[in-house]
Amino acid sequence: MAMGILGTVVGRAGVSGVRGLAVLASAAVAAALAVSPVQGQTLPWGGQASRVEADDVDPFYDAAGLTPGAPGTVLRTVTAPYAPAPSGPDGHQFAVPDRVQKMMYSTTAMGGDPVAVSGYMVEPTVPWTGQGNRPTVVVGRGTVGQGDQCAPSRNWPLDNQPDPVDSGRTVALEGAYDWVFAGHGVRVVVTDYVGMGTPGMHTYMNRAEQAHAMIDAARAARTLVEEHGDEFGSVGFYGHSQGGGASTAAVEAVADYAPELDVVGAYASAPPADLESVQRTIDGSNLVGAIGFTINGLNARYPTLAAELDTHLSEHGRDVLDDLAGMCTDEIGDTYGYQTTEQWTADGRRLDDLLGEIPEGVRAMNEQRIGTGTPAAPTMIVSGRYDKTVAYGQARELAATWCSDGAPVVYRDDILPEISDQNHFLQAVSGSTFGIPFLLDRFHGRPVTGTCDFPA
Predict the structure, then answer these.
(1) What span, in angstroms and rounded, lies between the C-alpha atoms of 376 and 85?
(2) In CATH, what class is 275-367?
(3) Percentage of the chain exceeding pLDDT 70
(4) I need a surface site. Which of 128, 181, 209, 445 has the fewest CB within 10 A?
(5) Which segments of the chain belong to CATH 1.10.260.130?
(6) Which residues does UniProt call coiled coil (predicted)?
(7) The whole model's pTM is what?
(8) Residue range(s) occupied by CATH 3.40.50.1820 in the chain
(9) Could you give the dihedral angle defined by the CA atoms of residues 321, 324, 325 and 326, in that order, rounded to the nearest 10 degrees?
(10) What is the 8-class DSSP label of residue 284?
(11) Fold held by 2-274+369-443
């Protein structure tokens, strides 16, 4: 099946080199996540609607007139068409609905103010066969961008949107996670994160706000489930890259923030637990634009830092940050790939060096660090030795830190050999071969094994 899907992608993408590898890496999410033995499946190349762009207006995301309330309060819902999952020659098909529910719900900003955030919920078409009520997995997507048009709920597999290869928004192929979990009878909730789709700056990699958006997505799902007369079951968190950071932040925060939720597990692939280390790694890479996402998010929540940083930026640097605030991930490599942040400052220093010299910058970066608390449930972390995007050591260190606190953490090195500079993208696939069974085991109440066993 994987070869069939990848062959289709090669034919459809018509690309080569680094960009082609990135497309293949993202497309492989769907290939490797398919848990059916059927061969020859193809991706469900999706809708005929035009790709959502930055200037497109969708009234659903207009929060004017809405008053965010208690965390998890559902503010608005609408049903949306959902792309069909792939089918094989024998007719096998993943069990997913043809419509899902978009939702806007309340969460809590870093400073404690309520804020509206959007997302969507996939209600499986097959029963849950485990004990208890149907469980819910909250998925945090990897880095999709900072513009509102990049939000997961505004892209494939929703709203008749073009498939991720045709649209260029290949990270949207993480929508394949929906198929696998829903096919096992697990409800799926995907958050857009704060400021993605909804008004305001997306606060990229803000530890507290990503945690709250994940946790309150579960609370919102509980409300919708109970409104239909059903009972809500256990909860798990899942994510790769930015989503891995959101998942670990959520499982670390949930005991204090939402103790009423029955959280049974979390999975994190390549979590950026130490943001400073990650920024040093990607400065000068094809994904250097993600540093701009981080700076824009910090500036939105730390006004003193924003004012100080502005005095050190060049005119070009200010233009870059403004431009990045409206971009999706597929655009940043083409526009700013392989620049260094010293090209964005007036005196040629890199942004991570500047942040380390500004007291408010040090405080802001420290407050995003994951690992200062303890996870509320068994957690699996996967990190790749050949990951050139999210530094290997800092994710492994997170697992070791939690283990030293007595937490039940299962750690795995990613299984892939070095594959050019694409290991990070491909780990969305390879890591899932660990992560999905891990969470399914937690939902089924099976014992956790192999905790705190680190490879040499």
Answers:
(1) 33
(2) mainly alpha
(3) 89
(4) 445
(5) 275-367
(6) none
(7) 0.91
(8) 2-274+369-443
(9) 140
(10) T
(11) Rossmann fold (3.40.50)
